[in-house]
Design brief:
The chain is α/β, with parallel strands linked by helices and 271 residues long. Helix content is 40%, strand content 21%. Helix 6 crosses helix 8 and helix 7 (149-162) runs antiparallel to helix 11.
């Protein structure tokens, strides 16, 4: 399996900006992941596999919360950022659809801000393969709040310049049905946690620069977008100084269904 070319090109070129500007996940959401991990049969010895770990934002939070983590990341540029910031966290290169991990190696698999890029059935088979009985899958998302006027207007502007996102936004695509169709897991539980992010106009513009499909735009198109975005924020909405970028952290979690083998029906790839 290969990485989607938009994701590969965009995240590779924007990796330093991504590492610097993307927000952490809500503290309460990280605490909830810790509860789920310690509720597995392994308890406090639970091992977390953070898939498509990117620059290590979630892996770092989980590690600082006391969990033992291993990161899997397909892009060398993103993995380099992770290794720089989290030298104690093992990081291996690999894709979600062919995880370079032995069977039943993990108690928790986390996938933060990435599941929409995967071939979902293949990735879910792999997640089921590497989780131990009673293991937990957690999809984590930092979701902007489009009920705030400038957030919705900025989203519309980015999409107008880009021709639209090459994936479904979390609030457009609920993953419970996708996971249910794959089999092998209990029903998905969704939980939301407030996660306001302090930012500035330049911080918001950096967030736009870090979007995968913006990073691969022709330079002149991207520059025009950023000029319009700054005018939108400063002139149309009067934003200045430090202000709140409204977000929620959303967790979609489920457990390996020990009464079903459907997630293991297909022979797994060689590790």
């Amino acid at each position: 399996m290969t990485v989607d070319p938009v994701a590969a090109g965009g995240f590779a070129s924007a990796a330093p900006t991504y590492a610097r500007i993307r927000p952490a996940y809500a503290r309460a959401a990280v605490g909830r992941i810790c509860e789920l991990a310690r509720g597995t049969p392994a308890g406090r010895d639970a091992h977390v596999l953070d898939v498509a770990a990117g620059t290590g934002i979630l892996a770092g939070q989980l590690t600082r919360a006391g969990l033992r983590c291993t990161a899997v990341e397909p892009l060398g540029e993103m993995a380099a950022q992770l290794r720089r910031s989290l030298p104690a966290v093992p990081c291996v290169l690999g894709v979600a659809e062919a995880l370079p991990v032995r069977d039943a190696a993990a108690d928790v698999v986390t996938i933060a801000q990435a599941f929409h890029w995967f071939d979902a059935p293949s990735a879910l088979r792999e997640v089921h393969r590497v989780l131990r009985p009673g293991g937990v899958l957690v999809l984590a998302w930092n979701v902007r709040d489009p009920s705030v006027g400038w957030v919705a207007a900025l989203d519309d502007l980015v999409e107008a310049h880009s021709g639209g996102r090459p994936y479904s936004h979390h609030d457009e695509q609920r993953w419970a049905a996708t996971i249910a169709a794959a089999g092998g897991f209990t029903a998905v539980v969704e939980e939301r946690f407030d996660n306001p992010v302090a930012t500035t106009v330049e911080g918001v513009l950096d967030r736009v620069r870090s979007i995968s499909f913006v990073a691969v735009m022709p330079e002149d198109v991207r520059a025009a977008l950023l000029v319009e975005a700054e005018a939108l924020l400063r002139d149309d909405f009067g934003l200045s100084g430090t202000f709140e970028y409204p977000h929620h952290t959303v967790l979609d979690s489920c457990v390996v269904d020990t009464g079903s083998s459907s997630g293991r029906d297909t022979d797994p790839p060689s590790p």
